[in-house]
Amino acid sequence: MPVRDFHEDDWPAVRAIVEAVVAAGDTFPYDPRWSTAALRDVWVERPPGRTTVAVVGNRVLGTAKMRPNRPGPGRHVATASFMVARNARGRGVGRALAEEALDWARDQGYAAMQFNAVVEGNEAAERLYRRLGFTVVGTVPAAFDHPTRGRVGLHVMHRFL
């Protein structure tokens, strides 16, 4: 699955993915009332971060963003987030995006990658991240208001590079 850097003309397709994932309300702690401009500001990273897209031909199937997890003394740990179009799930898009993010982080000299808010019960994400070597280092209890399961935890997942 080809993954490449985000280009401005990708925004309409990326926006559709981001808006659909946020509207579902079950995997990202983003407010569905945010404007398109606010979503773009949150999703499209500025340097030293990076935003990517997974594509088949000219069709964007998923997107990722990656950056330092924290500034200053925490800048040696990267973080990343991934969104896949509903009709492209289960086809390796998330894995391709995650592997590219890990490669990028290694190439940039990061020592580790940390995911700060993996929704407890997001089995597809948890399974993928565990296969890629991540472990849950902690769970913030009842930190995410899931639309059907009520308040569930947010996992912090980590792996060294």
Describe this entry's structure for a reader:
This protein is 29% helix and 37% strand. It is globular, with a radius of gyration of 15 Å. Helix 1 crosses helix 2 (36-43). Strand 3 and strand 4 (77-84) form a beta hairpin. Strands 1-2-3-4-5-7-6 form a seven-stranded mixed sheet. The chain is an alpha+beta fold. It is built from four helices and seven strands, in the order E-H-H-E-E-E-H-E-H-E-E.
Keywords:
alpha+beta; seven-stranded mixed sheet; 161 residues; globular
Concise summary:
The protein is α+β, with helices and mostly antiparallel strands and 161 residues long. The chain has four helices and seven strands; from the N terminus they run E-H-H-E-E-E-H-E-H-E-E.
Secondary-structure topology with pairs:
Layout: E1 3-5, H1 11-24, H2 36-43, E2 50-56, E3 59-68, E4 77-84, H3 93-107, E5 112-119, H4 123-131, E6 135-146, E7 150-160
Parallel strand pairs: 4-5
Antiparallel strand pairs: 1-2, 2-3, 3-4, 5-7, 6-7
Helix pairs in contact: 1-2
